[in-house]
Structure formats: C-alpha cells, structure tokens
Amino acid sequence: MSSAALRFPAEWEAQSGVMIAWPHDGTDWAPRLAEVETTYVALVAAITRFEPVVICVRDAALRQHAESLLCEHAGTSIDLGRIRWLELAYDDTWLRDSGPITLIDTGSGDRRFHLLDFRFTGWGGKYRAEQDDALVSRCFELGLFSPRCSHAPVDFALEGGAVESDGAGRLLTTWACLHQRHPERDAQSLTAALREYLCTPEIMMLDRGYLDGDDTDAHIDTLARFAPGSRIVFQGCRQPDDKHHEELTAMAAQLAALRNAEGQPYELLEMPWAAPIYDESRRLAASYANYLIVNGAVLYPSYGDPADRAAADVLAKAYPGRDIVGVPCRPLIWQNGSLHCITMQLPQGVLS
Fold first, then answer.
1. Residue 331: which H helix or E strand, with range?
2. Residue 24, CA distances (Å) to 56, 93, 134, 167 in order
3. What are 237's strand-pairing partners?
4. Is this model's pTM higher than 0.85 or not?
5. What is the DSSP letter of 52?
6. Domains in the chain and their CATH numbers?
7. If you ran DSSP here, which 8-state letter would residue 107 be given?
8. How many CA atoms are closer than 13 Å to the CA of 211, on its beta-carbon side?
9. Neighbouring residues of 157: CB distance < 8 A, sequence distance ≥ 6
10. DSSP label at residue 100
11. Which of 44, 60, 162, 276, CA to CA, is 20 to 30 A from 222?
C-alpha cells in the first residue's frame, strides 16, 4: 500500500462505530467504580442513538454485569442491538490512546484501511501499559476488523489524543506531549515522523496551552479541535485571575496565526471555561474541547456547570445540522481525562 494513497480522515467523516472499554475493579476506576459506570451507561445510550458501539470487557462476568446495567435503561434510551461485545485484557479504559489510528487508502477502489498500532507507553511511563499496548493486535486476532483492514505496528510512541486531523492534509498537535515521549528528538525530527507515519503533509505544532489535572502532557484533544468549514474549536479561559488564563490566551494567539489551505485564517470558536473542580486539593481538567463526534451528532462532556449550555451552543455552530448531546463526565475527570479520551471512532467500513 503506497503512503501517497493514504489519508488520515477527520473525525466528522462517516463512521462504522465507536470503541470503548468498560471499567472494572482491576483498573484505576476501582475506588469510584459505581460512579463512573453511570457515565458509561449514559455514553452507550448516546452513541447507540446514532451508530454501533464496541464494548471491550475483561471477561464474561464483566459483560454480564455491564449488560445488566444497560438493560436497566434499555426501555427508553439504549438500542441493545447496536452493541458488540469483545472480551480481552486491558490495563485501563482510555481507548483514544491505546486504540487504532485509522488511515484510509484513497488509491483503492474498494476502500481499504491501514490501522496504525503505535507503541503505547502509559503516557510516557506514568502507568502500566503492557496489555493496552497489545490491544490493537488482540482486536485483529478476535476478528473485530474487516478483511479490508491491515494491521500496521509502528515503533514510535504516540497516542490518538495527541493528534487531530482535518482530513485534508493538516494535523494539529502539541510540542509538550511529543517532546515528553521523545526527549531525544527536536521539533523538526518529530514533524518529519508525523508526516511519514500519518501521511499528513502539514503539521501544526502548538507550544502553548495546558490544563491542570491532565497527565497526558497537553494532548491536543483537551485544547483545540478542527471542525468542518475551516474552523477550530478551542478551550478558552477569560478569567484573568485563573492560572490558565495566560497559557490559553497565548495558545489562542497561536491558533489565530495558523492558515488553512487557501492561506486564510481559521474561524476560531472559543469554548467556555467551567468553574474550577477539585478532588480535595487537586484541580481536575474539565475541558469542553474533549468532545466526541459520531454520525449525525456531537457528544460533549457536561460537568454540572452553567457553562455546559454555552459549550453546547458553540458546538451547534461548529457542527451545524448535528444533534448536540451532553454526557455527564464529572466522574471521568477524577482520572485525568474526559469523554473523547475514553472513546475511539472507527471510520465507515472498518468493522467486520
């Protein structure tokens, strides 16, 4: 398969489904398992309104437990026929970072796919990751993916949350994350690697912007996202007394300096800032940029904050014609991630 024929699609393109992994008592969710399961039930209900969902489970007992929780809500909100179960081992549930990054073979008449399996190191060795690093290969072994998909192991540490594609040859990422994973490389070397592996000619690398409570070293999906029509949705902070104000304002200036394929600036759509949320003294990363796009809808993280409504209004402007659906994500940020982080979309045709 020629790299010249491969394309990294945008998330808003047609999908065959979304992958998630159900939390269990062997993951870091154990102390608050019942609480976070309410988010997973709401998420499955939201996804299945629009497309199938693949739910990874540790074993048959966990599947039975998850099914019972979902069945309690099936009467009104969950299409159980759109759920596909997959039993395999995993360390944790952040499939955005351990799942496959899909490239589409644009030179193929029957639409083939190249599923990239980058090294997953537990965000630079912060957590155990052996089982998560093997997740993509196990999915192939279990027959999850179509015969039109090829498995492509890549000896390079990269997470899906670290890269954002517009589907037309441009990619957003951050220096902080890539440098932490590859301290021996400079920006030029990292840019060249992303161009090669992701078949994306233009790499836009931000070096400003971060969120307290994010242990990914500034994943782009907590900060800024491409949207159709040459738009970028980004997480802002207009509170001058908040420690994030300076960094996110500087990031917004960097985004304003970017140019699209026609040499024009992007239309920037600023997400509102939620009031600080703490776990005892630890501030949590309540980013509204961490939303998930599915067929016909955008699912966004809600935090029980007045800014939730304003976030939905921004997304309605960024993705006209799609339903905007809130998913309660306050339990997720306790473990330093949010809605986009626990999901991985699969382009149309990838599922068997």
1. helix 330-333
2. 11, 9, 18, 35
3. none
4. yes
5. -
6. 3-347 (3.75.10.10)
7. T
8. 32
9. 118, 119, 120, 121, 124, 181, 182
10. P
11. 44
